[in-house]
Amino acid sequence: MISFPDIEEGKGPVLMLNMLKFRDRQLYFEEYIPAFNKVVSQLGIEGVKVALVTEVLGNIIATEGEVWDAIVMVEYPNAETFKTIAMSAAYHDIAEPLRVAALDELKLFMTRKTDF
Question: InterPro entries of this UniProt entry (predicted)?
C-alpha cells in the first residue's frame, strides 16, 4: 500500500530510498527499470535519475530475519513528480506488474538532502 507523506510542495528534490528483496533480479533490472523509464517518458517528465545502486553485503543493525539484496536511491525533482508517476495509469499498467513480479519485498522511503 502506498501512502504519501504530507510534504510541502515546491521544496525541491526528493530522494526515494528503495530497499529491495529480489524474487528475480534480472527481471527487475532488465524489464522493470526500462518499463519505469518508458512511463516517465510517456508522462513527459524530466529530471528523474538513479542516484545510487548498491548491493547489500550484510545486516549490521536490523530486525532479526530482515534481509535485503539491494538499496536503490532515485532522485525526483520534487515530491509531486514522484506522486504523479506512482499514481498514473501508465505506471500501474506498464511498470507495476513487473515490479511486483520481480520483488519479494520492498520498503520505500521519501527523503530529502539536508544540511546539518
Answer: Dimeric_a/b-barrel
